[in-house]
Every structure is written in C-alpha cells, then in structure tokens.
Design goal:
188 residues; alpha+beta; Alpha-Beta Plaits; 2 domains; four-stranded antiparallel beta sheet; 30% helix
C-alpha cells in the first residue's frame, strides 16, 4: 500500500532525517518526495510504502514523535491502487513556462486560470519575489490537441498584460538550455 504523507513545520535542520527515520523504523520505504521551504516554513509530500499495513494514525504518530509536541503538522492518506499516478494522461506533452517581471497582485490567479481553462495541468510550480521582481517557473502538462505555437503566443501576451516577460518552451529544449538548480536556488 502507498501512503501519501504531508508535513509542515517551522524550518529547522533534521526534519527530513526524522521523517525518514520514522518511515524506516516502521519498515517502510520512501518511493517519491518533494520538499521546499517558503518564508521559513518547511513543507514536504512523501509517498511511502510499508510491507505491512499500518493505520494512517500509526504513520502520523510515528512522524509526529520525531519533533517537539505540536511542532509537525502531519497528514496521512492511503493512495488507492486504482487511483491514477497523474492527473494528466501520458499523451500530454510537457512544457516549461517562466515569467519574470514586477510583482503585482493577480499574476498567479490569471495565469493559472488561463491554463486550467485550456485543460493544462500545473505539475510543478516555483515562485519567488526579490526586490520587487517576481520569478515564476511552472512545469506544465499540455493536451496534445493544443497548438504549442498558439499557446506560446497567448501566454506571452498574457504575461505582457501584467508587465512580465513570459517564455514557453518544450521541456526538452528548456532542460538543454537551462540549469534548473540555478533558477530555484540563486547563488548555486
């Protein structure tokens, strides 16, 4: 059985080690994970498997016990075997959308609304404001019936309407020409 675990807490060293230890000591294995820190708050989502079938409360209690009382906000769900691994079919193509420009209210709302209205799924999202400049990087799953050239034009136009520069590229082209670590972690 796969367990989906989310944890949020004030950031500090050792949270990942504690989560890993709790899963390991229960005989489990981490299959997939994603973690980030935003404004001093640590968040992680983990897919873990166990050879036995502990209750969600047992998994939650084991992870909570690795922090101080009340420190870790933990939620656990069992992933049903018939649930798809992705919200988008394998026929969808993957693109990267980057936006750069002055920060202003509504950018995320309008961009995400446009994408959703076209059946485009955001599979990963990163955004950071520094000195009034907003950088957003979105990984997108795009239905095959959409014309990438038209999408590129429409997204660039939408970005301009917010005073932002928008760049839409196939994931393979983007990865060949960019180092994602330098976008996500300035100074690396």
């Amino acid at each position: 059985m796969e367990y989906i675990v989310t944890v949020m807490a004030h950031d500090r060293p050792g949270i990942v080690a504690g989560i890993g230890r709790a899963i390991y000591e229960m005989g489990g294995n981490v299959e997939e994970l994603s973690q980030t820190v935003v404004r001093g708050y640590f968040t992680i989502i983990v897919c873990a498997t166990f050879p036995h079938s502990p209750s969600c409360e047992e998994v939650k209690g084991a992870i909570e016990s690795t922090g101080a009382p009340g420190e870790l906000d933990v939620a656990v769900r069992i992933r049903k075997p018939d649930e798809p691994l992705s919200a988008t079919p394998p026929s969808y193509d993957h693109f990267i959308l980057t936006l750069f420009g002055r920060d202003r209210p509504g950018v995320i709302y309008h961009m995400a609304s446009y994408l959703a209205s076209h059946g485009i799924n955001i599979t990963d999202l990163y955004g950071r404001t520094s000195d009034g400049e907003f950088t957003i990087v979105l990984e997108l799953s795009v239905p095959p019936e959409l014309d990438p050239r038209k999408l590129k034009h429409d997204l660039e136009e939408l970005g301009r309407s917010f005073g932002m520069s928008a760049h839409f590229q196939h994931e393979n082209l983007f990865r060949a020409t960019h180092d994602l670590r330098s976008l996500a972690m300035p100074g690396v």
